[in-house]
Amino acid sequence: MASNNEAVNYNRINMYGSAAPKINTPAPKRKPNEVQRPRVVKKTRKQIKLEQRRSAFKAAKVLVICGIFFALISFQIFSQVKVDELDRELQSVNSQIEILDSENTRLNMQLDSIISLDKVDAYAQDTLGMVKVENYQVSYVDLSSGDVATVSGGKVHHSLWDTIKSYFN
Predict the structure, then answer these.
(1) How far apart are CA 71 and CA 132, in angstroms?
(2) Is 1 exposed, middle or buried (0-12, 13-18, 19+ CB in 10 A)?
(3) 148, 158 contact by CB (below 8 A)
(4) DSSP states of the chain as a string?
(5) Could you read off the pLDDT of 92-136 as tens digits, one per residue?
(6) pTM for the model
(7) What residue spans define the domains of the chain?
């Protein structure tokens, strides 16, 4: 706490609360009725045309950049719409595949029930009059003796290899 003997100079404290002294810069002195006129810079026609070209070039550059951004955003939206359409088409094709798979399963079960071995056997016996083979009706052929063809009349025909072999012997 400050005692009665101490005085605080509030003019030395700035508005942020620091104890750094204020720098006193003199404000520019104006006359009370004097209107401050803007400073006019005179330019030649060549400088004016050059500035117009520069500003037109800047405007064209801004328009081109905006056009490019617009084209990119439009392309992004278009491709997203195409992806959504293809997704819907894929879902419809997948649902059709599932329907056709279930139909295929149903038809295969129906075919298996129609063409079972018992039904074929019954059809062959009842309708066609066929009978099952008995053991005495089976005859076996022995092919271990070789492959020989006999022509009627007693002639024996040899193979081409045998003919060539006998010619050189």
Answers:
(1) 81
(2) exposed
(3) no
(4) ---TT----GGGS-TTS--PPPP--PPPP--TTPPPPPPP----HHHHHHHHHHHHHHHHHHHHHHHHHHHHHHHHHHHHHHHHHHHHHHHHHHHHHHHHHHHHHHHHHHHHHHS-HHHHHHHHHHTS---PPPGGG------TT----B-TTS-BPPPHHHHHHHHH-
(5) 999 999 999 999 999 999 988 888 888 888 889 999 999 888 888
(6) 0.40
(7) 43-134
